[in-house]
Design goal:
The protein has about 325 residues and is an alpha/beta fold. Helices cover about 35% and strands about 30% of the residues. It is built from eleven helices and 13 strands. It has a six-stranded mixed β-sheet with strand order 5-6-7-3-8-9, sandwiched between helices. β6, α6 and β7 form a beta-alpha-beta unit. The longest helix has 17 residues.
Length: about 325
């Protein structure tokens, strides 16, 4: 178990992490979620002892961080940290050696993982010669080669095509069954929803939702409609009975009033749109985040980008 208690971290005037607490149980996939800039990576870096919290405690199976625990952690950072001029196999063995593996054992394990990820033919290629997706696979291999107990993955699906995303999901499922302590950090709510048992959603450094995913979704009811369509979906926001909406170019999630029948909404929407598919279901994490925060993840990230551009131009 990883237990985080009341973490605080401030950079100059920015409260990057503000009283964040959660527990990560073994044998479950824990989602640390939120928009870019929410405080996820800062929290992870404190867990890894890369930076120190202003206050708060972190425990690994009841013990504080130590060199022994460090060698039992596997970490995949969001930013690629590979030596671009080094060959793939040499790179993997170098990082394995830092975790205490012998050259012989690291090569044996590396060959297994390279075959699993269909990278065997690139073993003697330089890192810079690999695609971004293959570099991401190499980073994942490095994070699990030493068979760590604690595995922390920051945006692990970045750069992967759909086939390799499925492969990585299967591997994470295997690690889950082995009882590993797994933290999966992402701003992509739809990815997390498919994989996570437990979630902690952070926004502006604060926890806005924390608990078992299935239980948290039940708290928000089942009055959500997802619609795939062609046409101008902006009219969906104006339909009677729609309390909240997240409308994209050809997809929308609508939270409706409990007194309104979903078929009424669909019938009305069908007058204006070519509806290809709809489903009445529990609210998605995107919809829950929207309800809790008042804006979608995409809207928050876009606003932050605009603020950064404005500040840069001053």
């Amino acid at each position: 178990m990883i237990e985080v208690q009341n973490l605080y971290k401030t950079f100059t005037t920015i409260n990057a992490v503000n009283d964040v607490s959660f527990k990560v149980e073994p044998g479950r996939v824990f989602g640390l979620l939120g928009p870019n800039g929410a405080g996820k990576t800062t929290s992870i870096r404190m867990i890894l002892n890369i930076i120190y919290p202003d206050s708060g405690e972190i425990y690994f199976d009841g013990q504080p961080f130590s060199i022994d625990i460090q060698n039992r952690i596997g970490y995949l950072p969001e930013e690629r940290g590979l030596y671009r001029k080094n060959k793939l196999m040499h790179t993997i063995q170098y990082f394995a050696g830092l975790k205490g593996l012998s050259s012989r054992e690291s090569k044996k394990r590396a060959l297994y993982w390279l075959e699993r990820f269909q990278l065997s033919e690139y073993a003697n290629n330089k890192i810079e010669e690999l695609s971004k997706g293959n570099q991401q696979k190499v980073q994942f291999i490095i994070s699990v080669l030493h068979e760590p107990r604690y595995i922390i993955l920051d945006e692990p699906f970045s750069g992967l095509d759909p086939v390799n995303q499925i492969l990585l999901k299967d591997i994470l499922g295997e690690l889950r069954k082995e009882g590993k302590v797994l933290i999966f950090s992402t701003h992509q709510m739809e990815q997390a929803e498919k994989m996570c048992d437990d979630v902690c959603i952070i926004n502006r450094g604060r926890v806005v939702l924390y608990g078992k995913l299935s239980e948290e979704k039940k708290k928000f009811g089942i009055n959500t409609i997802s619609i795939e369509y062609e046409g101008d979906g902006s009219m969906l926001k104006r339909l009677g009975g729609v309390k909240r909406s997240a409308v994209y170019s050809n997809y929308a999630e609508l939270e409706i009033d409990s007194a309104v029948q979903p078929r009424t909404i669909i019938q009305e929407a069908n007058k204006y749109l070519d509806i290809r598919k709809f489903e009445v279901k529990e609210p998605t994490l995107n919809a829950i985040f929207l309800k809790l925060v008042g804006a979608s993840v995409e809207e928050i990230e876009l606003k932050d980008q605009e603020v950064q551009l404005t500040e840069a131009s001053l």
